[in-house]
Amino acid sequence: MVSRTLNEDVSVGAAYSAIGVVLILAWMDATMSVLQKYAESHRQLYPGSDIVVVQSHMHFFWSSDIEKKKTLAPVADYVLSRVYTRGLNTSGRGTIVHTFSN
Question: Which of 71, 90, 69, 77 is nearest to 23 (CA)?
Fold first, then answer.
């Protein structure tokens, strides 16, 4: 599993500044070049938001629960750090989760 954050310094319109993170959970074995198109669409809709793309591969589904948690922990930590501080939503910015299925 590979995750990447695509972030640019873009002026944020007031209507869309409420979205802090867009989390894209891809279908199995999706290529980053295809996922980049979805990321760019979200970038146009929510300029200034962090876009996090998570790819999945067949071997991930056969790994142990401990290995899955270890792999996904950095993504979860990043998203939570962008939205919550000490359990309180202090940023006032939401998260969009865009999921795909095979």
Answer: 77
How does pLDDT run across 72-91, given as a tens digit for each residue?
999 999 988 887 755 555 55
The C-alpha atoms of residue 49 and residue 95 are separated, in whole angstroms, by: 9
Residue with more model confidence, 69 or 84: 69
Q: Are 35 and 53 in contact (CB under 8 A)?
A: yes
Specify the residue for token string 């996090």. Answer: 52
Tell me the pTM.
0.75
> Can you say whether residue 55 is alpha, beta or left, with left for phi > 0 and alpha for psi between -120 and 50 degrees?
beta
Report the domain count for the chain.
Answer: 1
E-strand stretches of the chain:
3-6, 19-28, 50-56, 94-99
Q: What is the Cα–Cα distance from 77 to 59, expressed in whole angstroms?
A: 23
Residue 93 domain boundaries: 3-99
SS3 89: coil
